[in-house]
């Protein structure tokens, strides 16, 4: 499962749905992936909570193809942000859903990445 900055913030703030996925990852039932760009957006220095999160979340770089896909999405989805487009391109390339605190923005990007399922922190979808 791909997680974005909002999901990292949700983990840090101990939001129930985010913690549910963290527990599944701890049990080895799922793997949590984050593209490196979300770490930059989230990181504000080390804390015990952030260290714990990074023990479970695998942070990975984007490939050139992912950057291309994100750029093409920006050309077609008006108002989309680069980081959101990179998250969706990352998830699409891996065949993973995205866990986010910002469902509306990522849902708009599904126009460019129709195979990506967007899961919200506040919902059970």
Structural class: alpha/beta
Q: Give the helices and strands as they follow along the chain.
A: EHHEHHEHHEHE
Number of domains: 1
| Anisotropy-based shape | globular
Mean pLDDT: 96
How helix-rich are the residues, as a percent range?
A: 40-55%
Order of strands side by side in the largest beta sheet? 1-4-5
Please report the number of helical segments. Answer: 7
CATH class: Alpha Beta
The fourth-level CATH homologous superfamily is 5'-nuclease
How big is the Rg? 14 Å
What is the CA–CA distance across the termini?
Answer: 14 Å
What can be said about the biggest beta sheet? 3 strands, parallel
The CATH topology is given as Rossmann fold
Which terms would index this structure?
5 strands, globular, 3-stranded parallel sheet, two-stranded parallel sheet, Rossmann fold, single chain, alpha/beta, 7 helices, 125 residues
Give a nutshell description of this structure.
This protein is α/β, with parallel strands linked by helices.
Tell me what you see in this structure:
The chain has 125 residues and is α/β, with parallel strands linked by helices. The protein has helices spanning 5-12, 16-26, 36-42, 48-56, 64-76, 82-94, 103-109; strands spanning 2-3, 32-35, 57-60, 98-100, 118-120. The protein has one domain (2-120): Rossmann fold (3-Layer(aba) Sandwich), CATH 3.40.50. The protein is built from seven helices and five strands. Helix 1 crosses helix 2, helix 1 crosses helix 3 (36-42) and helix 5 crosses helix 6. The protein starts with a strand and ends in a 5-residue tail after the last strand. The longest helix is centred in the middle third of the chain and has 13 residues, at 64-76. Helices cover 54% and strands 13% of the residues.
